[in-house]
Amino acid sequence: MQGFNYLAALTVLALAGGCLATDPASERAQTIRQSLFSPPDGYERFFSPAQHNFRVGLTDTGDPVRRGRLSERFELRDGDCGGSDCGNPRARAEIAVNDDANPARIGQDIWYGWSFYNENVPSFQRDNSLRLVFGQWTMGGKNRPIIRLIQLGAGEGNFDRCDPAICAGPNTAQGDLVVHLDDIATASGWGARENNGYVCRLFDLADRQGTWTDITLNTNFSTGADGYLRIWVNNQLACNYAGPVVSAASAASGRQPEHRRGIFSSWTRRWEQATGGAARPTLIVYYDEFRAGVTLAAVDVGQATFNNLPPVQ
């Protein structure tokens, strides 16, 4: 978390009663309370207008926090939608980086690090999967997402038989949160032999309920053979892909890879068909310590903890 002085806000809320569910008496406390539902500097809500879609998590109100006293809380409920999502089978509680604050560039090395906490996201079957995305990099518009961390349903993906030049993760046996290179897969016509662009398994979401998971990602968003994508989960290498990451068509759009995080249900049609239109479950996750930089040391959550660096607030 950055920008607005959330620690000062936390203090005022504590003096006003400390509860987000009740309106503080003072006008200043009410203003600060509203600010707790605003994304950090450099980010904006993306098709996520409901107040509960994003707010600052606070240790003082019982929210989990990786370091310090603050985190980011995302909640997606049945019926939530904004913008073009409302006319399509998708919904999200997501924030997106602004163009002016976006450090990513095509063909340039960059590192990202953050912690992820699964409050209640369960596993799904193939036929009722909500195709949940927990972080993505995209050019926006009509361009396909470049990198997605997406949850597959049970039995989806064929990592064992995938071309090893494409599927480059040491773990092929389990884990429903996977890495999807949608843009380059679509442009290159990848099919079953390339596992439709699902290149690595990361971990099983249900197994990580109620605990923080540290993730570090390194890429250069290249359009050529010199491209790479490496991801570590709790300091263990989980993905080591080499090859193009961005399609030539997306690069030609003149945009840069835009980061988004939260909960994005990218395709709700399976759920609707499998359940007869039953209400979708309320989903809650947290993020903390999100950083982007030019070195591992600048973004890695574990190193920040070991070196006693101040938390991202």
What strand line-up does the widest sheet have?
A: 1-4-13-6-7-8-9
Distance between the termini: 4 Å
Tell me the β content.
Answer: 25-35%
Mean pLDDT, nearest integer? 92
**Count of DSSP strands:** 14
Q: How is the main sheet built?
A: 7 strands, antiparallel
Structural class: alpha+beta
**What's the number of helices?**
7
Description of the structure:
The protein has helices at 6-16, 27-35, 182-188, 248-251, 269-275, 296-299, 301-306, and strands at residues 43-45, 54-58, 70-76, 91-97, 110-118, 132-138, 147-151, 177-180, 198-203, 212-219, 228-233, 236-242, 258-265, 283-293. With 313 residues, the chain is α+β, with helices and mostly antiparallel strands. Strands 1-4-13-6-7-8-9 form a 7-stranded antiparallel β-sheet, with no helix packed on it. The chain starts with 5 loop residues before the first helix and ends in a 7-residue tail after the last helix. The mean pLDDT is 92.
List the helices and strands and how they pair.
Layout: H1 6-16, H2 27-35, E1 43-45, E2 54-58, E3 70-76, E4 91-97, E5 110-118, E6 132-138, E7 147-151, E8 177-180, H3 182-188, E9 198-203, E10 212-219, E11 228-233, E12 236-242, H4 248-251, E13 258-265, H5 269-275, E14 283-293, H6 296-299, H7 301-306
Antiparallel strand pairs: 1-4, 2-3, 3-14, 4-13, 5-10, 5-14, 6-7, 6-13, 7-8, 8-9, 10-11, 11-12
Helix pairs in contact: 1-2
Give structural attributes:
313 residues, 7-stranded antiparallel beta sheet, alpha+beta, 7 helices, 14 strands
Précis, in short:
By secondary structure, the protein is of the alpha+beta class.
